């Protein structure tokens, strides 16, 4: 999927046989907001004339425009973690995401300390919300809810309710478990669109089994341990079925029980059943940790008209923040990139 012809074929196939008259929901992009911001914050060392680092802010906006131009959605959602967003999963696993944000993510001398860097992150994200309010993009954050769960819920309900084709934008591998005929994941770090075929080629596992693959291997970035003695290569020697047959977690336990004496890995899986069930629950985005009230709110947001592009206000912020040449021909860029999103409103 790395060449241009493959990409165009993929985008075209996603639009074929589409008879949904409600065009605003036809082609939806769901963006992991914090993931997009942090990547730009770490990569772009740009300081304005006042000496303030604004690389994350400017890079985020530039990346957003590039995504809109590349994917050409009919509606766009920018989704952020809410305050206390890890609470629900920490109740299941206290170590979940522990140790994050204790080291600097930049490697230049703009910031004197980790505290200064964190302050800059917060300031730029707060300012970013003002810019997003000027764009025809729906920005969503729910207290104690992770962006992962909101994105997962939308990726399920929008295709069912509107026949939407959904593009998830994030470098987080957790979203790969959501891939199906209506959902594609774009990973900006690789510049790759992931569909079922790509999952099989990259990881050797069926897309339907990716959640089981992750459950067995764990996730170091989220402090979720896997099964000791089981790695990316050995997993298919122990469970070749993951490559060929859709499976459930119970299937894995039954298979391990039947081979209990053949290898210590099988016995560990049987003995650690409770922990693995908990890990599966934490990782399983197909059962998002959202209340009925939160789900109802998200469906109401989907029904709301797309916010109106406010070029004048955006340019005012842009001038105040001294973003300068980060986005060339800014007014033309806004018109050419974002204005079309308002044409799909009812």
SSE order and pairing:
Layout: H1 4-15, E1 27-32, H2 33-43, H3 55-71, E2 75-79, H4 87-92, H5 114-132, E3 138-140, H6 147-162, E4 165-169, E5 183-187, E6 192-194, H7 196-203, H8 210-217, H9 235-238, H10 249-258, H11 264-271, H12 273-283, H13 292-303, H14 311-320, H15 330-338
Parallel strand pairs: 1-2, 1-4, 2-3, 4-5
Antiparallel strand pairs: 5-6
What does this structure look like?
With 346 residues, this protein is of the alpha/beta class. Helices cover 47% and strands 8% of the residues. The chain has a six-stranded mixed beta sheet, sandwiched between helices. The longest helix has 19 residues, at 114-132.
- Note the main sheet: 6 strands, mixed
> What's the multimeric state?
single chain
Query: Per DSSP, what share of the residues sits in E-state strands of 2 or more residues?
Result: 5-15%
Order of helices and strands: HEHHEHHEHEEEHHHHHHHHH
Structural key phrases:
346 residues, alpha/beta, six-stranded mixed sheet, 6 strands
Task: Write a brief structural summary.
This protein is α/β, with parallel strands linked by helices and 346 residues long. Helix content is 47%, strand content 8%.
